[in-house]
Design a protein that fits this description.
There is one protein chain. The protein has a domain at about 1-125: Serine Threonine Protein Phosphatase 5, Tetratricopeptide repeat. It contains twelve helices and no strands. The chain has helices spanning about 25-40, 40-55, 60-70, 75-90, 95-105, 110-125, 130-140, 145-155, 160-175, 180-190, 195-230, 230-250.
């Protein structure tokens, strides 16, 4: 799934260490693998996790980390297999379920991803990140109304999350709720005014709103002309006005942001 460039993504995937009481050697393998992932050396990390699995083949922590490393190489189906093994004995592990959901998202398997988020929300209905992530999947699936509901739940739980506000704003744009979209972007910018994408999204929403207002004004003028002249004349005027608006959309203008 190719995520919309106008959605901001907050990934919560995390690496795990082995619990206390484990032998020093596999713990060292896992720590080294984790460090390699953080430095972008995923193939080497996989080697270290494999060495650790030779000693602890049923470790959910190692299988989770292996899944993360493999997912970074683009082998998402294999990563999901790793997460399933990790969940075999710890079926309600929040971090592993979240990592699995992200892999399903990347594969475009929105139904499976939503199942994961629903499982997280069954465990903790106050998980704001899970609500936001579910909203993202619903958005990508074209279920904009449902996405709005999910973002609203996320915002209610965490009103200081600019990502949820931005993504709700973009969803409102898709529904042509332009005033609501601009309000959402403004909320996001109050929280974090340093994210350029949010400024851009707000600017595009403002431009679209202005175009809508101009089209409405032109339609009113056309109706007025129709009452005084021919329908042909009013139609030509309206088409000319709309063409000018389309041309203006291709020009860079000061949006007073």
């Amino acid at each position: 799934m190719a995520f919309s460039s106008d959605l901001l993504r907050k990934k919560r995937n995390s690496l795990k260490n082995l619990p206390g009481g484990k032998d020093e050697t596999p713990c060292l393998f896992v720590k080294t693998g984790n460090s390699l992932i953080k430095n972008g050396r995923f193939v080497e990390a996989i080697w270290y996790f494999n060495k650790a699995l030779e000693i602890y083949p049923d470790s959910p922590e190692i299988w989770n980390n292996m899944g993360l490393a493999i997912s970074r190489t683009g082998r998402l189906a294999e990563a999901i297999t790793c997460y399933n093994i990790a969940l075999k004995d710890k079926h309600d592990d929040v971090e592993v379920i979240y990592n699995k959901a992200l892999a399903h998202e990347e594969l475009g398997q929105s139904g499976e991803a939503i199942k994961c988020y629903d499982k997280l929300l069954e465990k903790n209905s106050l998980d704001a990140v899970a609500w936001c992530s579910k909203g993202d999947v619903l958005f990508e699936s074209g279920n904009f109304e449902e996405a709005i509901i999910a973002y609203e739940r996320s915002i209610k739980l965490d009103p200081k999350n600019e990502i949820s506000w931005n993504n709700m704003g973009f969803t409102h744009v898709k529904l042509n709720n332009l005033s609501e979209a601009i309000d959402s972007y403004e909320k996001a910018l109050e929280i974090n005014p340093k994210i350029e994408k949010i400024w851009s999204n707000k600017g595009l929403a403002l431009a679209k709103l202005r175009d809508s207002e101009k089209k409405l004004d032109l339609q009113k003028i056309a109706v007025s002309i129709r009452s005084e002249g021919s329908e042909k004349e009013s139609g030509e005027f309206l088409r000319a006005g709309l063409r000018s608006i389309e041309r203006s959309k291709n020009m860079k203008e000061d949006l007073d942001l």
